[in-house]
Amino acid sequence: MEKILEVKNIEKYYGNKSNLTKAIDNISFNVEKGEFVGIMGASGSGKTTLLNCISTIDKVTAGHIIINGEDITKLKGNKLNKFRREELGFIFQDFNLLDTLTAYENIALALTIQKVNPKEINKKVNNVAEKLGIKDTLKKYPYQLSGGQKQRVASSRAIITNPKLVLADEPTGALDSKSARQLLENFEYLNNELKATILMVTHDAFTASYANRILFIKDGKVFNELIKGNDTRKQFFEKIIEVQTLLGGDLNDVI
Question: Which end of the chain has less Cβ packing within 10 Å, N or C?
Fold first, then answer.
C-alpha cells in the first residue's frame, strides 16, 4: 500500500523553560492511501495540536511529518504555501466559507488561485456539486444555506483540487443530527467512491464510527487503536465507547 502520511516521532512543546507544556509526546503512525482515519481524545489530549501540525498550521518541536513523500517539517514560505494549497484539503467545524462569494465561487476559489481554465473549473465544480447533492445551491450565498449545505460546500471545496490528504476538524460539531448523518454519508462516498484519504479529529463516537480506523490520544500519546475490519458500524461504535470508558474522565467531555 502507498503511504500518504507518515508521522515520525513528533513532539510539540509550548511555553518556555520555566513553564513548559508537552502537547505531543513522541507520536508515530502512518495513513495509507484511501484510508479514513479518525483521531479521538478528551479535551487537552493533544489531538487538535496533532492535526494542526499535520495541516502545517503549527510546527513540530521535534520529529518529521511526511505527506506524499514530502517532509513538510522542512518546507518554508512559498514552498509551504504551495504544498498546502495543492496537496491538502481542509474541512472545519465552522465551515470557513467566504460570505461575499456564492457557493460556486467558494468551491472554485482554490482552482481559480491555481489559474485553472474557467471551462475546466466549471466542469469540476458542477461535477463535485452533483456528487455531493448541492448543485441547486451553487448560486446561493452562505447566509442562504443550512448548516448541512454549508458543510457540503466546504467538503466540495476541500476535494476540488484532488488533494492527497483531506483533514477534517470536528466536521459535524456545528450540525444537527440529520445534517451530521448526511455529511458523514458524503464522507463515506468521498472515501469509498472517490478514494479520498481522510484524517478526521472528532469528540463524537457516532461520527468516529464512520471511519475505518481510530487512533485514541491521551496525554499527547497514542493510547489505543481500533480497526473496523468486518464490524458493522454499530459494532464499531460500541467498541469506540468501550475504549472511551478506558480513557477515563468524564465521558461527557469525550463523546
Answer: N
- Residue 7, φ and ψ in degrees, nearest 5: -105, 120
CB atoms within 10 A of CB 207: 27
Say whether pLDDT at 247 is over 80: no
Q: Where are the domains of the chain?
A: 3-95+163-254
Architecture of domain 3-95+163-254: 3-Layer(aba) Sandwich (3.40)
Using the predicted structure, report yes or no on whether residue 172 has a pLDDT greater than 80. Answer: yes
Percent of the chain with pLDDT over 70: 97
Predicted pLDDT at 251: 43
One-character DSSP codes across 74-140:
G--HHHHHHHHHHHEEEEETT----TTS-HHHHHHHHHHHTT--HHHHHHHHHHHHHHTT-GGGTTS
Q: How far apart, in Å, are the Cα atoms of 153 and each of 24, 110, 117, 139?
A: 32, 13, 21, 12
What pLDDT score was predicted for residue 248? 66
Is residue 244 within 8 Å of residue 252, measured between CB atoms?
no
Q: Is 233 within 8 Å of 210 (Cβ atoms)?
A: yes
Contacts of residue 34, defined as CB under 8 A and 6 or more positions apart, other chains included, come to 191, 195, 196, 197
The separation between the first and the last C-alpha atoms of the chain, rounded to the nearest angstrom, is 32
Which cell numbers hold the place of 145? 444555506
Strand 62-67 and strand 70-71: pairing?
antiparallel
Whether 52 shows a pLDDT value over 50: the answer reads yes
Q: What is the DSSP letter of 226?
A: E
